[in-house]
Specification:
The protein is α+β, with helices and mostly antiparallel strands. The protein is built from seven helices and six strands; from the N terminus they run H-H-E-E-E-H-H-E-E-E-H-H-H.
């Protein structure tokens, strides 16, 4: 039975299984001081064009995240994009059955021409979603209209993710140059005066 199931999956998703995934870009999603996950976008040629298929979004979790909470955040973003009730119904059905995530779990969403599906680590999840949902899910991270819009340039490879952030942290503040007349010598606060001899 397991072999039949694997054969069926490989036939259904042969395009994605045979795809040579190349990274387009990636970025970190942080909530306050917490790093929640890293999200990466992949295509067959390492570039992104609107409507291109197959595409893959991959999330590597750094913290435990409830599957229900993850889907609720998707529902909020989809409602903000106003992409229709059918997409929202898909998300609500996912909410009831989506697994929870632990650190180092990798959730991938693969968008094909007319359907899409999730893979958690090495296991294909049983939901198959329609073409409208494919674009909606990609738009959550790639549209400038969502709260994830800060990740857009990084996912599209237009902005380096980690290197840019490190450079920003290493910027040196401007320091005003001191002149000899500005310096007032001061004793350190713990300086012991009793060792000084008085004339």
């Amino acid at each position: 039975m397991k072999k039949i199931c694997l054969l069926w999956i490989s036939c259904l998703f042969s395009t994605a299984l045979l795809a040579q995934w190349k990274p387009v870009g990636n970025g970190d999603y942080d909530w306050g001081p917490f790093h929640v996950y890293n999200v990466s976008l992949y295509s067959e040629n390492g570039e992104y064009q609107d409507g291109q298929r197959p595409m893959m979004l991959s999330f590597k979790f750094a913290k435990p995240v409830e599957g229900r909470s993850f889907i609720i955040s998707l529902i909020k973003e989809i409602k903000g994009l106003d992409l229709g009730e059918n997409v929202e119904k898909n998300l609500e059905s996912l909410q009831r059955a989506f697994p929870d995530f632990v650190p180092n779990d990798i959730l991938s969403y693969i968008a094909l021409e007319d359907k899409g599906y999730f893979i958690l680590n090495d296991e294909v999840l049983e939901f198959t979603l329609d073409a409208q949902f494919n674009q909606a899910l990609l738009d959550i991270w790639l549209s400038p209209k969502t709260s994830f819009s800060k990740l857009q340039k990084k996912l599209l490879g237009k902005e380096q993710s980690s290197e840019l952030d490190i450079k920003e942290l290493m910027v040196k503040p401007e320091v005003q140059q001191l002149h000899e007349g500005d310096i007032e010598p001061q004793l350190p606060p713990n300086f012991e005066l009793n060792n000084i001899s008085r004339d």
